[in-house]
Amino acid sequence: PVLLLTMLGMIVVGWYLNALRLRLLIGRRRLGQRRAVGIVIATEFAICATPGGAGGPLTMMALLLRHGVPPAKGTATYAVEQLTDLLFFACALVGVLIYAVTHSLNTYIASLLGVSAALLIGLMVLLALLGRFHRQVFLLNGWLISRLGVKGARQRSWAKKALSFRNAVLECFRLPLSILLSVFVLTTLHWLLRYSVLYLTLLGLDKSLAWAWTFIVQMLALTAGQLSLLPGGAGSAELASAALLAPFVGKSTAAAAILIWRFVTYYFYLIAGAPLFLYLWPTFRWTKSRNLS
Predict the structure, then answer these.
(1) Per-residue tens of pLDDT for the chain, all 293 residues
(2) Angle at 126 between CA 128 and CA 233, to 5 degrees
(3) What is the domain extent for residue 154?
(4) How many domains, in total, are found in the chain?
(5) Which string of b and e fits 12-40 if b means at least 16 CB within 10 Å?
(6) How far is CA 238 from CA 86, 220, 274, in A?
(7) What does the alpha-carbon distance between residue 254 and residue 256 come to, in Å, rounded to a whole number?
(8) Contact 186, 81 (CB under 8 A)
(9) pTM for the structure as a whole
């Protein structure tokens, strides 16, 4: 029980760190820490409860709009947070590869590292190409929209929103270097806490496995969950993590560890986030009526 409470406390601390990150990106004076924590928890709930986490950016945009943050700024803030997360995973994977070089590897671990590196490199290349050729992407989207018969006024409205989003993203990256470094440090601390849950779970089950290997297992399992487009990767993440973890610790221990790990990093998000999300539901109705008007 003590270890379980410790891991739940780590998740709460991670929410607090993410709230600090959010305040740094949008400006501390716009949002207090308590409200920022509420926005983070509600957003995490929306990510876990919707297919592919699609509800996350919409939830953050709606809640920030209530605090005077324009929709473009809200969605851009969410995008920058995701890019910061990706940067952490890139750095962490480099660290894991360095660790792997100094330790003996079997074929199974080497294959996991290869798949992880390929996925991350592919995603970063895709994002780099998207950033480099974003003008061409906008033009292609405009052509596709026109082919679908969307009226000119609606096309111009969507184009304006896309440009506002791009400008808001660039505005985030123009923040002082000290703020950007602080954002990355907070991101690193959050993910180190969250990705230590499985490691601590295995320790509690009297199984010792290097943190680096638990990191790889979690990253691949959660990636499989995202690709399944199921809410929170429910089912697919469990199956993937069981297949990846069993060769290390055995099937029975893997099953018990996955049950605890998913409770802390998924079901706890739903349990804690659902009441807050329902409490903030009038905000979404207010945002919708404002946009329609």
Answers:
(1) 799 999 999 999 999 999 999 999 998 778 889 999 999 999 999 999 998 888 889 889 988 988 888 888 999 999 999 999 988 988 888 888 888 878 777 777 777 777 778 887 888 788 778 777 767 776 777 667 776 766 667 667 777 777 888 888 889 889 999 999 999 999 999 999 999 999 999 999 999 888 988 998 898 888 888 878 788 888 888 888 898 899 888 899 999 999 999 999 999 999 999 988 888 777 665 555 555 44
(2) 125
(3) 2-292
(4) 1
(5) eebbbbbbbbbbbbbeeeebeeebbbbbb
(6) 22, 11, 22
(7) 6
(8) no
(9) 0.86
